Amino acid sequence: MGAKDGARPGVNRRLLLQGAVGAGGLVALGGLGAARSMVSAAAPPVKGSLNKLFIPLPAHATTELTAAPGLTDLGGGSMGRALLYNGHLPGPTFVVPKGQLVSVPFTNGLDAPTTVHWHGLIVPTVADGQPHDAIVPKSSYLYQFTVNQRAGMSWYHPHPHLATASQVAYGLAGGFIIRDDVEDALNLPSDPYEVPLVIRDANVDKAGNLSYNGKASGFTGSIPLVNGTRDAQLEVDQTWYRFRILIGSNSRLFNLTLSSGAFRLIGNDGGLLPTAVDVAAIELSPGERVDVLVDCTGIGAGETVNLVDTNSGWTLLRLTGTGALNAPTSVGRIPADGDALCVDIPTLVAPADVTRRTFSFDGMTRINGLVYDMDRISFEVPENTVEEWVFRTNGNAPHPVHIHGASFQVVSRTGGRRTLFEWEAGWKDTVLLHDRETVTVRIRFDGGHRGRYLMHCHKLEHEDAGMMLNFMVVDPNAQLGASPAAYDTAVPGPHGMAAQGHVSHK
After folding, report:
1. How crowded is residue 490: how many other Cβ atoms within 10 Å of its Cβ?
2. In the prediction, which pLDDT does 41 show?
3. Which residue of 26, 36, 109, 349 sits 20 to 30 Å from the alpha carbon of 490, by its own alpha carbon?
């Protein structure tokens, strides 16, 4: 499915360690030569000023993608060094219809190994951008897969072992939007009234460059960026807007609110929800997405409404009215609170002998007591079989749990917040665990792809430190490929392997 030029499918641990050191230090932003003098000459942003929100450029199914160091405008013309996809922060937003073959030639222009992981997309192992398939510097890879899932917003980012956190912190991320007939029939707001918002925090040094000082507990920056813009402002007409929101931070949680009004929540990680619902606040962790409608019909010329993070007290984005009344002619009826949106979300039903797996997220480095090993397969999952997976915290939460290769449905949360939230309905690929919480999900790998996939904490410093594991999706009629001793958890029942500690029948 993919082809490399000058890069091996696997990179040895020594090379990965070298890459991690490079990506975590100044060499990650090297290679700019004389352009560095432009940074020191750039004027610092004026305190209290607002900067026009950058809208990521569009991309299609065959757009070439390059990761490389470069200069970026973080707002107000202040240029700083960062790691960029196609010269921008964030990278281009892919917009691809369901059923389309994606064929993206990728070039690694960094000084360290990297990958492109298509977070939320169900793709073959060879296209998943796993750390096993790191692309060495100055090499290329052809990412190929067919989009066979419902409409929604996913994203892409690096996933090299030991260096994911630093490469993302320095700027590498971009959106991926899938379209389909079900969503199109709703006639929701479209460009320019459909706006992707990549929200993250960052540190910027005195020269205006992105900087990174991650530690084991996580990285928290001192300023917010929305689409790579600090102190961001979007001029809005008096109409409804659709905001596709991605939390692209390393570890920070964002509790999103509006200074006036509520969000009309219509979708999350896996696309449209069954019904629209008005919510006043949405708490999201790294990797999670929501799709919301915001009523800007009452924002007059010069008036403002702010998108706010109540966790930090930051104003993330100021919506400033233009006074224009030219509502988009392409928009049909805006779904009201409680309106049905879609009926294509089947409920995953657990069989009587369901396999239940329990995963303890221990401290900042382990799952079920083990630090990640690239060569260890922790368990095998039969394809097209519903299982229940139970996630527990064992210190140092929050832990956003992300699973490659399938979406899941959140069944319950006990302890901690003791509730499921409106944005956790439908399909998810990342779910947040606070301290003392246990979350149960139902999952079925039915995307037609067998092979190796990953589970990990999406607090990226935890991931790099070892809070990650490999598992295999296998033919449900095949014998498991290893003895029970080779696995952290074992599939009981028809495969002939005894349950070990972390696995049980319901």
Report:
1. 24
2. 32
3. 349
List Cβ neighbours of 170 (8 Å cut-off, separation of 6 or more): 23, 28, 29, 82, 83, 210, 212
346 DSSP 8-state letter: P
pLDDT attached to residue 78: 80
pLDDT value at 39 more than 50 = no
Tell me: pLDDT of 4 over 70.
no
pLDDT given at position 215: 92
Residue 27's nearest CA partner among 137, 186, 156 is 137
- d(CA 405, CA 390) in angstroms, rounded, equals 17
**Which pLDDT belongs to residue 328?**
60
The pLDDT, as a whole number, for residue 344 is 77
Residue among 299, 319, 296, 300 nearest 241 (CA): 296
Reading the block at residue 93, the tokens are: 């937003």
Asked if 96 and 143 touch (Cβ cutoff 8 Å), the reply is: no
pLDDT in tens, 240-284: 999 999 999 999 999 999 999 999 999 999 999 999 999 999 999
The pLDDT score that the predictor gives to residue 477 is 86
Question: Could you tell me what percentage of the chain is helix, strand and coil, using 3-state DSSP and rounding each to the nearest 5?
Answer: 10, 40, 50
- Answer yes or no: are the C-beta atoms of 481 and 270 closer than 8 Å: no
Q: Scan for tokens 């919506």, then name that residue.
A: 319
Contact 291, 153 (CB under 8 A): yes
pLDDT at 232 over 80: yes
Query: Residues in the chain, how many?
Result: 506
Cis bond leading into 189, ω under 30°?
no
Q: How far apart are CA 335 and CA 278, in angstroms?
A: 11
Strand partners, 282: 256
The angle subtended at Cα 500 by Cα 124 and Cα 435, nearest 5°, is 75
Identify the pLDDT of residue 281.
Answer: 98
Q: What backbone torsions phi and psi does residue 295 show, to the nearest 5 degrees?
A: -80, 105
Predicted pLDDT of residue 325: 85
Closest CA to 22 of 196, 160, 174, 223: 160
CA distance 94 to 63: 8
Tokens 């169900």 correspond to 122
